[in-house]
Amino acid sequence: PAKLIDGKLVAKQVREEIAVQVTRMKDVIGIVPGLAVILVGSRKDSQTYVRNKKKACEAVGIKSYEVNLPEDSSEEEVIKHIASFNSDPSVHGILVQLPLPRHMNDENILNAVSIEKDVDGFHPLNIGRLAMQGRDPFFVPCTPKGCMELLHRHGVEIKGKRAVVIGRSNIVGTPAALLLQKANATVSIVHSQTKNPEQITRQADIVIAAVGVANLVRGDWIKPGATIIDVGINPVDDPESPRGYRLVGDVCYEEASKVAGAITPVPGGVGPMTIAMLLSNTLESARRIHGFK
Ligand code: NAD
């Protein structure tokens, strides 16, 4: 059976390491890393994400700043707040919670964030640099960065290996594929128009699935011994659960865990890593801005 890649445990270790570094920075140069979060509108799920990010900051000693704007705000108003955080020396990371209201153009908003404070890594210049050989972005998007961290901390060799990423979204699939390529894997991307996705996936030593379709990847899609990172978070009906549903990944865990060499569970795999990487990006930013090693 496959080894379990315990994201909850790794995320806890990462958060503990960050807390130590935040304290050290404060003691040595008197600087506390700061993260600003801008939320537009009142989506319940976004409010929950923002609350969780604030709590995670507090737990490691990062200061958080929050701005809540009404749903009907204009792009200019949002950009005004971004600009003020861009020039605020106590803020080292800025993120705009997505999705934005429909009347706003995401690109205009994301473009306004200073690339040196873009801790979500969604600024087109940061994504562009991620795609370039011999260049590095200031920040890498948190979820794919969390996938790579899990691979590294489990000693998975990437160089020269075949990797398949299923899904090509801007926030997960595409940056995950670019990161694997930077780490010298040979990468294929499987997406909604791919023919015979199972044949292509079966060639992979490393699979990152970020699709949003419950149990899409079956046991016979997987090369024996492969490492599987399952990003998907999908609710499925479950009358036995108190909430009436439970969460499953994009990979059929029951089947895959019999074939794979190592696999992340859902929940408790990539999920907890995302916020840990946001904290890591914020600390890294404060260090870079203040020249603190
Ligand atoms: P998305 O909907 O933006 O992108 C899905 C991608 O999957 C698309 O590129 C599409 O081409 C591809 N796709 C769709 N159907 C397919 C099929 N049948 N076969 C192959 N490819 C197919 O989704 P996303 O934002 O990238 O998120 C993907 C999943 O990851 C979701 O379940 C989401 O909830 C989860 N997610 C988890 C985290 C986390 O763990 N913190 C973060 C982000 C997203």
UniProtKB/TrEMBL annotation:
GO cellular component, one term: cytoplasm
Residue stretches making up the Tetrahydrofolate dehydrogenase/cyclohydrolase NAD(P)-binding domain: 141-288
Domain Tetrahydrofolate dehydrogenase/cyclohydrolase catalytic: 5-120
This protein's pathway: One-carbon metabolism; tetrahydrofolate interconversion
Gene Ontology molecular-function annotations: methenyltetrahydrofolate cyclohydrolase activity; methylenetetrahydrofolate dehydrogenase (NADP+) activity
GO BP annotation list: one-carbon metabolic process; photorespiration
Reaction it catalyzes: (6R)-5,10-methenyltetrahydrofolate + H2O = (6R)-10-formyltetrahydrofolate + H(+); (6R)-5,10-methylene-5,6,7,8-tetrahydrofolate + NADP(+) = (6R)-5,10-methenyltetrahydrofolate + NADPH
UniProt keyword annotations, A-Z: Hydrolase, Multifunctional enzyme, NADP, One-carbon metabolism, Oxidoreductase, Photorespiration
Role: Catalyzes the oxidation of 5,10-methylenetetrahydrofolate to 5,10-methenyltetrahydrofolate and then the hydrolysis of 5,10-methenyltetrahydrofolate to 10-formyltetrahydrofolate.
Family: Belongs to the tetrahydrofolate dehydrogenase/cyclohydrolase family.
Subunit structure: Homodimer.
Name recorded for this polypeptide: Bifunctional protein FolD 4 chloroplastic
Taxonomic source organism: Zea mays
Residue span relative to the full protein: 73 to 365 of 365
